[in-house]
Amino acid sequence: MSVLVQEVINADYAFVIHTTNPTSGDSSEIYTEVVKGLGETLVGAYPGRALSFICKKHDLNSPQ
């Protein structure tokens, strides 16, 4: 068992990226949520709005 301790920075935005869409279970989609601030409204039971979007993995281009 280990514990990770990190300094909290004053972030402008926080985000979570799911490599499988959690609402549909579709593994060909990436589901992302973004909030302004440190992310309490994103990961906690706080009221607030998250900008969310879905993209298909095959639509992404790898840099050459």
From TrEMBL:
Molecular function as annotated in GO: kinase activity
Start and end residues of each Pyruvate phosphate dikinase AMP/ATP-binding domain: 1-44
Presence of keyword Kinase: yes
Gene3D superfamilies per UniProt: ATP-grasp fold, B domain
Domain of life: Eukaryota
Keywords linked to the UniProt accession: Kinase, Transferase
The keyword Transferase belongs to this UniProt entry's keyword annotation: yes
SUPFAM superfamilies: Glutathione synthetase ATP-binding domain-like (SSF56059)
Coiled coil spans: none
Similarity comment: family membership: Belongs to the PEP-utilizing enzyme family.
Record-given protein name: Alpha-glucan water dikinase
Annotated organism of origin: Trifolium medium
